[in-house]
Specification:
385 residues, alpha/beta, Nucleotidyltransferase, domain 5, 2 domains, 6-stranded mixed sheet, 39% helix, binds adenosine monophosphate
Length: 385
């Protein structure tokens, strides 16, 4: 029996990187994980070479992922993070040729992500042909968004023909965290109304009623919604027209501007929250404005989702900023006592890797910090088959 029995290899394949983690889906114990970066720019020419490198690294640790592949002694499954599932996928799906070609077809909706995801799947199938490969979609949790939340008010026929609607992303995280929240409160998920704030370099908010997402801040693409590390979040679409028409910018230039040169980075030159904090400490006014814009947008979504849900039992902060930046949590919810929302400063200052309550025990709304774990959620989904 090798040490990898029952583990799941989780792969997150980007255009020039491959993140991987081998873990036990039941305990969450991580055997080993890491990232291969700058694929194509270095002596790692492509994703196949990257995955080979990963296998070599495991082998150097005495773990042969190919040994016993497809048998109880080997790894149980490979779980692939896939960004866009479009209208085709609403749940984790065992990958066959048809599923893979559908993921490729959806590249028109996620040109930066789906081709890379598909490539990762292709090489993993090739190198581990006996092992079940499962795709877990970032959009799946939002598949059933109510029509009112999912629909853009644009020409109906055009939208239908081209599948233009709000899809939402970070779904694996929103679902995982919302389940953790219910477990933390010791209540059935079906009874809990909550707002989940996934604040990382990418950021999104969701309103979850009884375990089902009823609204989310990202849309057709991950560009909509909250202010992010390098993305604008919500802007007037007229701004895009103006950039093209009056400033003569090309679509690619606008894409680059809105996705990579905006958000905190665009406003303050820094997308890392720690660096932003240091700038604010040093009196940098651009950094302060960037922070204020970030918080303003965040509060706007909290307000919207309070109204969406009507009754809110919990608000959960997660991801790099949400889990670590106490000031963001305090500022996001300041002055909302009238809504039953209170952040206790002492509890909020505690650092921990565990789910925790930062509101007073008797406050009507439980404010929680819940570490996300997308790899574990993907591993569990992949192991379920
Ligand atoms: P993620 O995308 O979830 O990995 O989150 C990345 C973001 O989390 C970056 O903007 C980091 O600046 C931020 N972050 C990580 N650790 C901390 C920390 N201790 N305090 C504030 N922000 C942090």
């Amino acid at each position: 029996m090798t040490a990898v029995a029952g583990t799941v290899l989780v792969l997150n394949s980007g255009s020039s990187s491959l993140k991987y983690q081998l873990l036990h889906p039941d305990t969450g114990e991580v055997v080993h994980g890491g990232i291969v970066e700058r694929i194509g720019e270095t002596d790692v020419p492509d994703h196949k070479a990257a995955l080979r490198l990963v296998f070599d690294e495991f082998a150097a640790r005495g773990l042969d992922l190919t040994d016993g592949a497809g048998t109880p002694a080997g790894i149980a499954a490979v779980g692939h993070r896939v960004v866009h599932g479009g209208r085709s996928f609403h749940a984790p799906t065992v990958i066959d040729d048809h599923v893979l070609s559908e993921i490729r077809r959806l590249s028109s909706l996620a040109p930066l992500h789906n081709p890379a995801n598909a490539q990762g799947i292709e090489v993993a199938r090739e190198l581990l042909p006996q092992v079940r490969q499962v795709a877990v979609f970032d959009t799946a949790f939002f598949f059933d968004l109510p029509g009112a939340a999912a629909t853009y008010a644009i020409d109906r026929e055009l939208a239908q023909e081209h599948a233009l609607r709000r899809y939402g992303f970070h779904g694996t995280s929103h679902q995982y965290v919302s389940e953790q929240v219910a477990a933390f409160l010791g209540r059935p998920n079906a009874e809990v109304n909550q707002i989940v704030l996934h604040l990382g370099n990418g950021a999104s908010a969701s309103a979850v009623r009884g375990g089902r997402a009823v609204d989310t801040s990202m849309g057709l693409t991950p560009l909509e919604g909250l202010v992010m590390g390098t993305r604008t979040g919500d802007i007037d679409p007229g701004l895009v027209l103006h950039l093209g028409r009056s400033l003569g910018m090309s679509i690619d230039e606008i894409d680059e501007l809105l996705n990579r040169k905006s958000g905190l980075k665009g406003l303050a030159g820094e997308n890392d929250f720690r660096a932003l904090g240091a700038l604010i400490e040093a009196g940098d006014e651009d950094a302060k404005l960037a922070y204020d814009v970030y918080i303003h947008r965040l509060r706007r979504y909290v307000g919207a989702y309070l109204v969406d849900l009507g009754r809110v039992d919990a608000i959960a902060f997660t991801a790099g900023v949400g889990e670590n930046a106490a000031q963001v949590r305090a500022d996001a919810l300041a002055g909302l006592e009238g809504f039953g929302i209170v952040v206790d400063p002492e509890r909020n200052a505690v650092r921990s890797g565990e789910p925790r309550r930062i509101s007073p025990d008797d406050a009507p709304v439980a404010v929680l910090v819940v570490p996300t774990n997308e790899e574990l959620a993907i591993a569990r989904d992949a192991a379920r088959f």
